[in-house]
Amino acid sequence: MKFSIRRLSIAAGLIVAGTGAGANYAYDRYASDEGLHIVVNVPANRLYVYEDGVRTRTYAVSVGLVGYETPAGSYKIREVIWNPWWHPPKSDWAVGRTPEPPGETNPMGRVKLNFGPLLYIHGTSDYQALGNPASRGCVRMRNEDVIELTRLVHEYASPKLDQAVLETLIGSPVMTRTIRLAKTVKFTAEYQVATIDDGFLILYPDVYKRGTKVIDEVEQTLRASGIDMAEVNREHLDRLVEKSSRTRVAISLDELVATAPLGSGQDENQPER
Q1: How many helices (H) and strands (E) does the chain have?
Q2: Which one of 101, 166, 170, 270 is separated from 123 by 20 to 30 angstroms, measured CA to CA?
Q3: Residues of the chain scoring pLDDT < 70
Q4: Phi then psi for 138, rounded to 5 degrees?
Q5: Residues 6+ positions from 87 with CB-CB distance below 8 Å
Q6: Distance set, CA 74 to CA 40, 77, 125, 188, 255 (Å)
């Protein structure tokens, strides 16, 4: 399933979700950004694109496995490598592997965008793993999605790039080229097990078992979004937090602040909001 190019209606930092409680909450921390900002939420295995503070695209990705965690932090993307070669790193898991030329089945996919030492946003042909941790620290995307994302990166960060050159690189999967960007692009890898989106509280498993108390992070997220914790159905919230240790769950904010006990939140096995 492809989650690209989803235009969201986000204005003045609010994600509007109809009437009721959900219409007034869900402050977006990136709403005041200018230019292009790429954000990955590691527990969600989702990559979000912000343009001048508005989230314009959402993609399913694979982040690092336990033991090869994608490190949270703020980074800068300075260059793009189209149709890269893959060279095995000096790691135990790569012993015996040999370099692989560019192509659709190359482990780095069609494009890689470096954001840290040996850390990339890059393409992959392993589409079945998207939405779950599967990499060794990098952020993997469907090849067509990383091409779409990189088009946007060039639009913002190298607007003078010859479009004929770009189209040739897209159409020629074996033509390798490194392009230094005229200006850097912001990239943030965050670790949020609780988010609010489109009027829903969404909880993700703590994939790296950080040892933090999930309920504290959930409460902090709700308060930051303007929700009075005294109005929250605490028994219901506690059940959702316990369930989120095993699977992704979502509940509408209207339901969460209802006074009467309600049914449990739904599994979030539906298309990304």
Answers
A1: 5, 14
A2: 270
A3: 1-27, 259-273
A4: -80, 175
A5: 99
A6: 11, 10, 27, 5, 34
Sequence-distant (≥ 6) Cβ neighbours of residue 123 within 8 angstroms: 108, 109, 110, 111, 112, 140, 141, 142, 143, 145, 146, 147
> Full-prediction pTM beyond 0.70?
yes
> What does the DSSP 8-state code read for residue 118?
T
CA atoms within 13 A on the CB side of 183: 9
**What gap in Å lies between CA 251 and CA 240, rounded to an integer?**
9
Q: For the chain, what are the domain ranges?
A: 33-190, 195-267
Query: How many C-beta neighbours within 10 Å does residue 192 have?
Result: 18
9 φ/ψ sector (left φ>0, alpha ψ -120 to 50, else beta): beta
- Can you tell me whether residue 255 is helix, strand or coil? helix
What does the pLDDT read at residue 11? 30
Q: How far apart are CA 180 and CA 67, in angstroms?
A: 31
Q: What pLDDT, on the 0 to 100 scale, is given for residue 169?
A: 97
* Torsion 185-206-56-108 (CA) sign: positive
Using DSSP, state whether 249 is helix, strand or coil. Answer: strand
Q: Which CATH superfamily is domain 33-190 in?
A: L,D-transpeptidase catalytic domain-like (2.40.440.10)
Q: For 84-93, give one letter per residue: b (16+ CB within 10 A) or e.
A: bebeeeeeee
> Closest Cα to residue 134, out of 143, 147, 125, 145?
125
Mind giving me the DSSP string for 131-143? TS--BSSSEEEEH
